[in-house]
Amino acid sequence: MSKFVERPRYLCALGGAIATLKALPRTIAVLHSATGCGGNIANAINNGAGYLGSGYCSGQALPSSNVTEKDIVFGGEERLTEQIENTIKLVDGDLYFVLTGCMVEMIGDDINNVLKKFQDRKIKVIGAETGGFRGNSYKGYETVLETLFRDFVEPKDETNPKLVNLFGVVPIQDVFWKGNLTALKALLNKLGYEVNTFFGEGETLDNLRNSASAALNIVVSETFGVEAAKVFEEVHKVPYIKVPFPIGDRGTENFLRTVGNALGEEKAFVDRVIKEEQTRYYSYFERIADVYHDLDLQRYAVVVGDSNYTQALTKFLADDLGWLPELVVITDFLTDEQKETVSKGFSGYESGLTPRVVFDTDASSVGGYISEHWGQNTGEKYFEGFNPGFIVGSAFERDVAESFGVPQLTVTYPITNRIVMDRAYAGYSGGLRLTEDLIGTLVGSR
Amino acid sequence: MDYIKEKAPPIREDRLAACQAYGGSCCDLNSKSKKGCLYGSKRTFSQSQGCQLNLSLAILNTIRDSVIIVHSPIGCGGGLVANAGVSKNFQKLRDSNAFGLRWINTNLDENDVVNGGEQKLKEAVLYADKEYRPSAIIVMNSCVPALIGDDIDSLLEELQNQVAAKIVPIHCEGFKTKIMATAYDAVYHGILRNLVDQNGNSQNEEIITDEFEELKKKYRISRTVNLLNVSSMSRVDEVELVRLLKALDLNVRILPCYAHPDDFEDSYEAALNVSICATHDDYFVEHLKSRYNIPFILRTIPIGISNTNKWLLDIARFFDLEDQARKLIENETRELEKVLGPYREELKGKTAFVAGGEIRIITTAELLHSLGLEILGLRGYHFDVYGENLLEEYLNEVPESDKTIINIGTGQPFEQANLLAKLKPDVYVGHPGGNGWAAKQGVPVFPLFGQQYDYMGYLGVFEVARRLARTLRNTSYSRNVSRHAKLPYHSDWYSQDPFSYIDENIPEDIAL
Given pLDDT bands bounded at 50, 70 and 90, which one contains residue B201? Predict the structure, then answer.
């Protein structure tokens, strides 16, 4: 039984679907919904994802049937047919993907009746039901991937042993998705593999179309993309593994070892790749040895965000940077089973830290957890508290950071106080980027 | 006008026969609109736009000391992330203790679609009251609960007895209307029913204990105007308009944006309602007239010298202060003309295309024209009788304007792309959502409005002149981007009629 959410950090299933398709090259989403869904989602994405902009055919350009109460007396299927027909005529794309909003689903429009009409065209038109009440953005991501895996990925008889697919990094919800995918690809290239991420730099729809030749699907998440991977396995017989999203040295070493192992790579080879990366990483990471200690820049930290980022950030802060991330707030919709799996990702730290992990979708709860964990000063002369503190979260956490008088860095959605282009936090280079941003915040007023 | 007894206001297609799909010349629009035959026009291809829920939030996210509850599945109201930081900063300009924007989404899921969402709404309301102790809890009703039959009004009436905050239901279900601006009626409907004169003092005969105090109060009210602001204007714009009104010795109460819920209680204690945008306020001022006998001014926005003069004179005439106003106007325009010369030189002969709300685009076009630019085309989000009135004046005052292209559509950048490719203006003055597309086509862009900038009154004329001139001094960014960005339309689109996908759908008996 779900509950209300105070300041959600995601959109609905439709929002996640639109975002996912926005990131897919030459793909035109066609919205079949009431007026407003497209506009609301465009605002949320353009502003909440580091000012991403309208993309190729998104924002106000996203084709939409815009049905109103008056129009849907006889159902909206005719309007949708007209809309798809004219979208194909007017808009230049290689794949057209129909999505549905709450209203049209509730009045019983069946998009499959309409999609059938476009089956024997050269132009590919597919669709999925993504009504907002089905879940949040992550549900939209899964639904789109599942549909693509079933209806767009071509069946292949032969496997390319040097090809892998990588997903679980959710476009736009992970605001740094583009840079992150580039970083993860580069790492796997170093292991000698070609990588399809579908949404990455330089990729085309062919990467997706031909992805069934892959030897393995790598899901960089314990939670996102797992259901889609199961579908891929069912339909195309490609197995999958899950590996936590990596930031910095510890996280990326684990990533390379886990993937290397699954692909049957020799340990010595993987060791060499890791050593090479670490050498470069530490050549920069050691730079702050002076300022970190001269100014005592170790901090207590609170990490707030989705299940991918929180485990990666917390491990980095604890085991790479030597900070004390004692409190983690995970804001996703998760089943009890998923919560258990996700919680396991916060144990076994090399530093020995055992962060307190809570699951809460309400933005206003964070302050309460901080007070609970570090106590509240009731006028004592000697009191430690959340001091020196630092909050790593979303733009919503600025308020609570201000109330505790601590600095804050925006890393998780929504990000309204930064511009994001190809910045990445994944991998070794991502760890350096994060260090620059964290320590940079601390020296920012000097 | 009196729709207050209804739970929800009528949609603008019905109330104002508003049009949201049209393409043609200004004089053709003017005549067709007068015949009343455009409300049925539609598109056979359309692109995403906002709904009345999104747009209601544009005003409601500014109300201080309130919590907004969006009663819907998890996505509705998602666009509020864009306002989170901004709203707090601007609220603090009016009250340094303001806590900014707080909202809750009732997160209706598949379960609730079947069983109803009222329980979740109840929990959300009780939580909001206990956790934040706000002055008002504003509940936005959306498509899904409307369709499944949640009776939010009965539930909220009952809950009002259990919470300290004033509950304000807003009926802004997106799928009811294509005219996004119906949002403003939804907002004012909720305000009128729940925040104005709740104590019933307008009807009560107060016991007069001190006749002198009573006289002072009556005098003050006789010189008080309600200035109805819009959330797209800046604080400096407000300050400029208040400055001009105070120069006429008037007291100014500013509503509704960035106001406190309590500010509406005595809002009927005013001599005159001054609207600066008919699109926003006609519903509100008409009701305040019919219920509390408060006259109103609604004709135009004070943008540009000509319209600011008209606005001031309309108000002054009401208070019999025309002479004072003329002196003020003379002083202001003389000071302004002293500095506008160099900017007029720089902008002379440049062409412009203006897009946005009907009232704003027409007055902004007049302002640009007065600075020496030629207006090649206009795009309005919708069009109705209020636009008609302004357009009529514009056609009379700006030479050759009857041939100016005008396109009516909420968003619909595909039509804009075609028009801009054909017209090739030197500058596009537009609305968020459309500006990026113009830039990608290589057209330099100057925003039609912005909360950090000044556009209104006499100061606004100077500000627009200097910022527009500055913008055009270096247009490298949009030029660079246009060389590499590709708009998504097939190349044959640009040789077609930009209005190919509009079906005017004129009823047969009017078509002649």
Answer: confident
Q: Are strands A5-6 and B103-105 parallel, antiparallel or unpaired?
A: antiparallel
Per residue in B87-122, pLDDT (tens digit) is 888 888 888 888 888 999 999 999 999 999 999 999
Q: Lowest-pLDDT range, A394-408, B31-45, B381-395?
A: B31-45
Q: Which residues of A297-335 are buried (b: 16+ CB within 10 A; e: fewer)?
A: bebbbbbbbbbbbbbbbbbbbbbbbebbbbbbbbbbbbe
Strand positions, DSSP E, A257-379: 300-305, 324-330, 356-359
Which chain B residues have a beta carbon less than 8 Å from that of A61?
47-48, 413-414, 437, 488
pLDDT of residue B505: 76
Beta bridge partners, B409, equal B21
Check whether residue B102 and residue B128 sit in a common domain. yes
pLDDT digits (tens, 9 = 90+) for A187-231: 999 999 999 999 999 999 999 999 999 999 999 999 999 999 999
Structure tokens at A57: 């055919």
Res B493: pLDDT: 98
Do residues A110 and A77 lie in contact, with contact meaning Cβ atoms separated by under 8 Å? yes
A363-375 burial: b if 16+ Cβ within 10 Å, else e:
bbbbbebbeebbe
Radius of gyration of chain A (CA): 23
Which of A119, A151, A183 is the C-terminal boundary of a domain? A151
Tell me, yes or no, whether A441 lies in a domain: no
Cα A245 from Cα A73, distance rounded (Å): 47
Residue B102: list chain A partners with CB under 8 A: 6-7, 364
User: Taking CB atoms and an 8 Å cut-off, how many pairs form between chains A and B?
Assistant: 240
- Tell me whether residue A178 is in a domain: yes
Q: Are residues A375 and A400 in the same domain?
A: yes
Quick check: B51 and A34 CB within 8 A? Answer: yes
- State whether A395 and B434 contact (CB < 8 Å): no
* CB-facing half-sphere around the CA of B458: CA atoms within 13 A: 19
Instruction: Examine the pLDDT at B510 and tell me if it is beyond 80.
Output: no
Place of tokens 């925040």: B195
Domain coverage including residue B89: 52-176
Domain check: are B313 and B345 in the same one? no
Predicted TM-score (pTM) of this structure? 0.96
What is the domain count for chain A? 3
Q: What is the CATH number of the domain that holds A361?
A: 3.40.50.1980
State whether A264 and A301 are in the same domain: no
Phi, psi of B353 (to 5 degrees): -130, 130
Which of B257, B287, B322 finishes a domain?
A: B322
Q: What is the ipTM of this complex?
A: 0.95
A324 close to A298: Cβ distance less than 8 angstroms: yes
CA distance A187 to A270: 11
User: Which residues from A are below 8 Å from B434, CB to CB?
Assistant: 60
Q: Is there a domain that residue A1 lies in?
A: no
Query: What is the spatial distance between Cα A251 and Cα A320, in angstroms, rounded to a whole number?
Result: 9
Across the interface, which of B43, B49, B107 has its CB nearest the CB of A3? B107
Together in a domain, A322 and A397: yes
Q: Which domain does A351 fall in, by range? A: 297-415
Distance, C-alpha B478 to centroid of its chain: 28
Q: What is the pLDDT of residues A266-284, one digit of tens each?
A: 999 999 999 999 999 999 9
Q: Is A142 in the same domain as A17?
A: yes
In a domain, B345, yes or no: yes
- Residue A274 to residue A41: CA distance in whole angstroms: 41
Domain final position from B322, B354, B371: B322
